[in-house]
Write a structure and sequence with these properties.
With 144 residues, the protein is mainly alpha-helical. The protein folds into two domains: 4-48, no CATH class; 58-141, no CATH class. Helices cover 46% and strands 6% of the residues. It is built from seven helices and two strands. Strands 1-2 form a two-stranded antiparallel sheet. Strand 1 (96-99) and strand 2 (105-108) form a beta hairpin. It is elongated and about 70 Å long. The chain starts with a helix and ends with a helix. It binds zinc ion (ZN). Zinc ion (ZN) is lined by residues 111, 115, 117, 126, 130.
Length: 144
């Protein structure tokens, strides 16, 4: 039992001023708080950082273009509002984008995370146990 993993990221004097862990230490928080405070500040900084820019492949860009064109027309323009993004995150399954060997791409929110279709990246069929309640039915059940 050591402090090593925490001490690796601690101010250097913390290592020398902290007693060896043991049952005789009645208030570990007194020694750990300065370190945990620093770790929490680091976590907050990481979480507050803007997301790193991700580039998408030309093939995936083409697939998104096709998704827009087949949904809204060949010259479509469609703006997605933040609340629509939130709604999509909270209804149905997580978005999965599966690029198949033949060049086709599947965009799906239909399957649960451990469905064979998802775990095999589209190589296996769905086991038909993927069910997400229709948002309209959920609202009706709650009397809206
Ligand atoms: Zn499924």
């Amino acid at each position: 039992m050591t402090w090593t993993s925490l001490a690796a990221d601690a101010p250097s004097d913390w290592w020398h001023n902290t007693p060896t862990p043991g049952p005789d230490i009645d208030d570990p928080a007194r020694f750990l708080s300065p370190v945990t405070e620093r770790l929490l500040q680091r976590v907050a900084t990481i979480l507050a950082a803007p997301p790193t820019t991700r580039t998408i492949s030309p093939h995936l860009h083409g697939a998104i273009s096709a998704l827009l064109a087949t949904s809204y027309g060949y010259d479509a323009e469609h703006r997605i509002d933040p609340d629509e993004i939130t709604w999509a995150y909270t209804h149905g399954g997580a978005l999965h984008i599966i690029e198949h060997p033949d060049g086709s791409v599947t965009f799906t929110k239909h399957h649960r995370e451990d469905c064979p279709f998802i775990t095999s990246r589209g190589a296996q069929e769905c086991d038909e146990d993927c069910y997400f309640p229709d948002p309209a039915d959920v609202e009706r059940a709650h009397g809206k």
